Every structure is written in C-alpha cells, then in structure tokens.
Amino acid sequence: MRKAILVILDGLGDRPSPLLKWLTPLQSAEIPNLDLMASKGLIGMQYPIAPGVPPGSDTGHLSLFGYDITEEYPGRGVFEALGEGIDIGDGVAFRANFSTVEERHGKLIVKDRRAGRISGEEAESLAVEISEMRLLGGEVRAEFKHTLEHRGFLILRGEDLSSDVTDVDPHEIGYPVLEPLPINKRAEKTAKALKEFLLKSYNILKDHEINKRRIEEGKPPANFILPRGAAKTADLEPFSARWGFRPAAVAAGPMYKGIAKALGFEVYQPKGATGLPDSDFSAKVSKALDLLSEFDFVYLHIKATDVASHKGDALLKREILERVDLALEPLTDASEDVLIVITGDHATPCTIKKHTGDPVPILFYGKGLPKDDASNFQELDAQIGGLGWIQGNDLMRLILNYSDRALEYGLRPVTKRIMYIPRKSDLTPLSI
Question: Which of 241, 348, 389, 401 is the most buried (most CB within 10 A)?
Fold first, then answer.
C-alpha cells in the first residue's frame, strides 16, 4: 500500500488572461516539474462541489476530503477559531473581514471587502480596539481576533445563542451591508447581538487614527467588520476513521489549519510558511516529505496562488506557480510507495477576482501508475486526460484506489461503511 501526499494549490483554476496573451497562468508558466509529473501520470479536471457551483475554500476542502457538505458542513467560523487554537465552546463563531464601507442614504455600501488587504501592525492595532465588547446589556460577550491580512474571526458567547443567522456580507462591492436576520426564533438573540457589534465596532473604527491616516495616503480605510459563516463547534467524523489513513497537514492559513484540526489531522507550520506570496514553499514540501516517516497521508496547502487571483494579478500568479514548481521538484523523485496528488480547492480566475464554479486541473503521479497521453499540467491537456472529469467528492475514493488501499465493494470486515483495507489493529480476531 502507498502513502499519499495531497497538494492543494488554493484557487488554482483560472481562465485566459489578456495579461498573458489569452493564456491561463498554468499555460503561461514555466513549470517543468509539474509537466514532468503530468507526462508520467494521470490528469483530468474536477469540480470541487459540482459543475457551476463556486466553492468556498472551506466547503471545497471538505468536499475534496470526502465529506458531504449538504449534511456535514458546520460553518466557516469554527474553522477560523480552531486554526488559532481557540475553543469556541458554546459560542457562535464567524469568519470576519476588515472591509471598507461608505455611508449613503442611511445605508452602508461595501466599497472593498478586504480594506485593501490591510495587514500587519495596522490590522492588529485596529483589532485590539474591538477585541472585547459587551452586548445586549452584558448578556453576550463579543471577542474579535485578527489572523492574517484582512482576515479575522468573531466569537459571540452567552446563553441561548444560535448559529442560524444570515450573513451580513453581500459578497459583492457596491452592495449594502445586509441586516443579520434570524433563520428561526432561536436565533433572534444572536442576530440582535451581532447587529449591535457591527454598529459599535463601526463607530469605533471609522474615526480611528489609523483609518484617518489611510485615507490621507489614498488607501481604503478598514472601517467595518464583515462577518459570515456562523458556526457552532464542529462535530465531524475523523478523517482517519473515514478513510483509514493517519493524517498530517502542512499549512499556514488559520482556516486551513482549522479544517485539518477539525478532522483530526496533526498540523504543522514550518518556519517561513506564511500563507502569503512570500511563503517558503520549499520548507513546506520538505516538511511534508519528512512527515511520511510517521504518517501515511499528508495534506499540503499553498495559499499564495489564491492571493494573486483575488488581486487580479495573473503575472503574480504565474510567478508563484513557477516558484511552487521549483519547490515541488523533490516530489518527482518520490519513492515507489508514495502517491502524489495535486489539485486546487476551487477556481479563482484572475480576470474575475473571486471564486467561480469552473473546473480545476488534477494530477495523480507515482511510480507504476497508469499513464495517459497528456504532456503538460494545464487546462487543455487536463480536459482530455485519463482521469476524465470528476467531482471533488470522488477524490478520496480515487486516492484509496491508486494507493492500493481500496476495499472490494460489498466486503465489510470492520463496519458496514468502511471502504479501505483495514489495519490489523482495527480487526477483531475470532477467539478459539
């Protein structure tokens, strides 16, 4: 049986760009190592959720890991908190962005959902100003924490709170901030507390010296918090129980570490891994390979490709792909007992600057695997590759198959739903 490394290049999928003479970043990039693996392996296209459905990074990942997001998705906020080592307990957690809004006719209009991708000391200083707040006469306590760039998370703590509230983020610029609404009666208190936090934090942020300075410098002020993805504590079946692997993760972004922790992965962030374009990709690959001595499934996440996409910078995305390709060179010489899988969690075309429902290239590589006629890791070859067109939820079954761990359909040596060849320690031998 093989061990497996799954490399997820965030926002990998793309469309032709005028900056690249109407090629995609993958088509335009010099990526000899990815091309080598494609020429010796199997490639195809995958829809992380379903054709035409734009995934979030969280839902895209869960689907790729083999979870049914219609039944098992807890909401994004819990992953953000877990990634920072915060136990939300009985609270409600939200993913939250610093954003820029403008008052217009009694409404707050979203001008920039990421406040110019504010980061560093400015974001930290603003976060401190709203880090703790009492709401509804003290019945609810709000906690806000900055994580990476414009990102952070909000936790509401108190009795009788519910995650059944609507998003306030309209997900588009030029639209008004939305009223947080209760989906059911149980969530009325949570919606009221959230609305109070939004207005109080806005009044604190809009006149802050940092934002006054940003306006003077021609930068968008970070004057509003946009929460979304209300969530209670995740209760997901461990990845090891579902698929039989002992898993580890190499990631830097809080949400990706949080997803891994929620599924029972051991999580590692090597020195130099930042979750940004300046990340040390080689350090991540080296750590992933080292972990194979202790684990048999390693998930390696690279965020920088998505950062470039959201900026609309196809040239930067091409440059990042080329740097990632150099870092991936050790994988081309992986031992015979290692399966390499490379794909993305969703498409983020640079021309669109947001997630879309486009398909994403996928690559399987390993000594002794079947080959197809593809010669390059890019969209046109992937569209006719030997893996064909699959959905993200198919991925783990394919990994089981090509790591020689898949159990023949209908056999049930441990439980009725198990799909992998079990470890001897999982078996109950007959006593005589």
Answer: 348
DSSP secondary structure of 97-136: EEEEEEEETTEEEEEETTGGG--HHHHHHHHHHTSEEEEG
Determine the straight-line distance between the first and last CA of the chain, rounded to whole angstroms: 30
pLDDT digits (tens, 9 = 90+) for 88-111: 888 999 989 999 999 999 999 999
The closest alpha carbon to 92, from 75, 114, 111, 109, belongs to: 75
- Enter the pTM of the model: 0.84
Q: Where are the beta strands (DSSP E) in 201-337?
A: 224-231, 247-250, 266-268, 297-302
**How far is residue 134's CA from residue 229's CA, in Å, rounded to a whole number?**
21
Look-up of token digits 């806005």: 202
Pair of tokens at residue 125: 């200083």
Domain with CATH 3.40.720.10 in the chain: 3-73+236-426
- For domain 3-73+236-426, the CATH superfamily is Alkaline Phosphatase, subunit A (3.40.720.10)
Host H or E run for residue 152: strand 151-157
pLDDT, tens only, 177-226:
999 999 999 999 999 999 999 999 999 999 999 999 999 999 999 999 99
